[in-house]
């Protein structure tokens, strides 16, 4: 039970002040004029002013409320290093027991897990959420058990009580960390990209260690080991071996005594792209499709085109002096003997043997294919003649044999059943509603994959692999009709773009491929195949465990499945003869960038609230009461501020100056003043 005097003015406070000033002036004036009743007049004014102020005697029936102490436990990944988990759990139980033994005090235990994605430890956010659920007037203190590696320490929070940190970890902890400073998302194939690496020893590292073993592996291949300095930036040039995703793994062996090896490895995923496509176009004779090929290739700024064309065959005799036919002799020997390996693609457009390119040159082109090159033959009527390219040394790598028949009938190119699953022809724009072609060269004994068919289902576009290279045969020279819009045209540009990328071994056009994309710890696996089914994918986790992931159809020739990776690191995928690797999680998990326990990040919040930091390895601190505004931490102890909060159950008010008493007193005082002055 508590009592106090409260005021409830009957008039606005400003008006009450004005009345008080007028009354005071009246009393002063009465005194100056020598009126004997000025004192009684003043008392009467005070009684009236007091009545207008509305004083009451208030009695409250209060029930005290207990104080609340927030015990915040950091359960993030870095708290599992060493013996921090056991250390923190023991300290939390001991502190909770101390709080429970205090009179009129409750404890609220708050657990702080890892943040979503790679957000790290969001301890201050957890404290703000906990404070939002509690009456702030009852919070007597905040005790955070953590290693101090907090990633939202700059979050502004108005804390109502002292905040203390009970620091886990040990003073002699040390750790070795690998950091990749810069890792571009893309790099040009064949050109070196510079990465900056750094190896640091953190904490109480052993003295005398200046070099560390660094392992480098690309796409899961056996690693190469190098000895590199510790504590210095390392500049490393890296050349990507192929297009598409390249997974580069840098790792350090686990050193005796270090906290963890989770930050001893870094995964870098870079996409390899080609700088420019170098194409050699060999035209046999001028024809409407020749300009289409040239315009198509020249319209792409990423294509470097060398066009070798025969404008005047040797058998043509028109009387023009030989010296006036050309200012500069075409460097055929340099192109077909010395520089041939510099080209990504060679196209023969209606070319036939005329003695201009010796058999040695064409043999060199065949060897170029076997060593990994790409050749596309757009066949015209000459391909079915005795001068056909097939009857040259290049014929050994061509995917079909000409039958000497040429069909001069209109026909509609169609995608074969196999072509509907092949990425070069699957889903071409127009869905088969295309214009007709007017000529097809008959070929037999196709080798490889027939993806387009022509008259009576005869092979029209054949794709084949020859040793390390690739070759394609288009058994018609009328593809240009599509670009001219004949009978509505067709997807010539898209078809030739896909065809060129397939021949250059671009990963997105591979007909047999196993790929995966990652989002956080989730992996979407895609299997492209020419088969009608796909077996489960075997996934090998970083710890060596394996899992089978079933695939479901997702379009012609495409199967997909999902996998949730339990750990951060490099995963290996295997499906038949196809293999792939992918990294899950960030290249450098935020929780393991800084692993040595330190409360520096929380120092501003702690000092502002007069809190303190104690190391758990020195023992659990004692808790004591401190007044608000006083230092709340000392050697071996931490302070809590009792809040004295209460709940009001009943309120009673009794007027001090009831109306009858005001009337009686004011009348008596005014009458007394009148009588005193009248007697005079």
Number of structural units classed as domains: 5
What is the count of helical runs? 11
* Fraction of helical residues: 10-25%
The percentage of residues in β strands lies in 25-35%
What's the total number of strands? 37
Identify the strand order in the major beta sheet.
16-15-17-18-24-23-22-20
Give me the secondary-structure category.
Answer: alpha/beta
> What distance lies between the first and last C-alpha atoms, to the nearest angstrom?
53 Å
Task: Characterise this structure.
This protein is α/β, with parallel strands linked by helices. It folds into five domains: 94 residues, no CATH class; 153 residues, von Willebrand factor, type A domain (Rossmann fold); 98 residues, Immunoglobulins (Immunoglobulin-like, Sandwich), CATH 2.60.40; 201 residues, Class I glutamine amidotransferase (GATase) domain (Rossmann fold, 3-Layer(aba) Sandwich); 75 residues, Purple acid phosphatase-like, N-terminal (Immunoglobulin-like, Sandwich). The protein is built from eleven helices and 37 strands. It has an eight-stranded mixed beta sheet. A five-stranded parallel beta sheet has the order 4-3-5-6-33, with helices on both faces. Strand 3, helix 3 and strand 4 form a beta-alpha-beta unit. Helix 1 packs antiparallel against helix 2.
In short:
It contains eleven helices and 37 strands. With 680 residues, it is an alpha/beta fold.
Keyphrases for this structure?
elongated, 11 helices, Immunoglobulin-like, single chain, alpha/beta, 8-stranded mixed sheet, 34% strand, Rossmann fold, 680 residues, 5-stranded parallel sheet, 20% helix
